[in-house]
Structure formats: C-alpha cells, structure tokens
Amino acid sequence: MGDARCAWCGEPLPVSAGAGRRYCDAGHRQAAWRARRRRHKAETAQRTLIMAGSVLSTQVERELGGVAAGDGKALEGAAHCTAVARIPRLTDHLVRLAVLADRQAGGSRPQIGTALGMSGEAARARFTRRATFGGRPGVGDVPPQ
Q1: Burial of 90 by CB count in 10 Å (0-12 exposed, 13-18 middle, 19+ buried)?
Q2: Which of 53, 54, 83, 106 has CA 20 to 30 A from 98's CA?
Q3: Are 119 and 110 in contact (CB under 8 A)?
Q4: Is the confidence at residue 59, as pLDDT, over 90?
Q5: What is the DSSP letter of 2?
Q6: CB-side exposure of 29: number of CA atoms within 13 Å?
C-alpha cells in the first residue's frame, strides 16, 4: 500500500488508507468528481452543438436549393430573402448552444464574451439561462427527420 498515490494530486496515500482508496482526502475526491461531471457535460453539449450545426447547414442547403431549382417558373419577388429569412434565428440558436457548451465545459463569462466580441457582463445579460432557450427555431426551421 506504500506506493499508492492520490488520483487527484499524486501524493502518496497514508499507510492507514484502506483498500480501494484513491484520494488522499474528501476534497480531492470531490474535485475529481466535479471534473468528471464537467467533462461529461461538455461532451454532451459539444454533441448537441455539432448536431445543431448540421441542422443549420442542411436548412441553408435546402432553402437555397429550392430557390436555385426554381421549378422552371419565374422566381417570385424576394424569393432569395424568403429562403434565408429563417437562417438568422437558426444561427442565433447555434450561438446560444455554443455558449451553453462553453459554460458547461467551465468557460467563464468574460472568456465567452471576449470570444463573441462583447464584455463578460454583456454575455451574462444576453445568455442567461432564461434567455438561452427563448430563441428556439420555429417549426419550419428544422428539416423533417
């Protein structure tokens, strides 16, 4: 047992440590648990972000493909604008998901704000939990599965 080390800090575990003990104290066990939980949340948020990006890409291709096809008819007035009218809502949703993913990965508001070209306080005000889910895409924004 003398060569056993704490899985968090690497210090040798006390001789009195029981079998199966991995951490030198409860604080290190808690810190390791928080790190695992943060990593799991970040991975889940990253998968969601990738999926949302894929949906956005599919939507853009579908909308612009429909305008390009034209079905042999003359384009109606503002057809291009109509095709991309929903895209800003989808990109806003994608940014909100990215902020959520960064927060779950342990990113601070000032870091996120800097990445988005705003202050940390502005990022906090814009992307609070309440506002994060307010800009969901509309029914027609997501292509059918």
Answers
A1: buried
A2: 83
A3: yes
A4: no
A5: T
A6: 8
**Looking at per-residue confidence, does 72 or 144 come out higher?**
72
**Phi then psi dihedrals of residue 144, to 5 deg:** -65, 150
| Secondary structure class of 135 (helix, strand, coil) | coil
Query: What is the amino acid identity at position 88?
Result: P
Structure tokens at 47: 């998968």
The mean pLDDT value for 92-117 works out to 87
Neighbours of 48 (CB within 10 A): 15
Mean pLDDT value of segment 67-79? 60
* H helices, E strands: number in the chain: 6, 0
d(CA 106, CA 101): 9
Tokens of 145: 């599965």
Compute the distance between CA of residue 96 and CA of residue 86 in angstroms, rounded to an integer: 16
By the 8 A CB rule, do 32 and 6 touch?
Answer: no
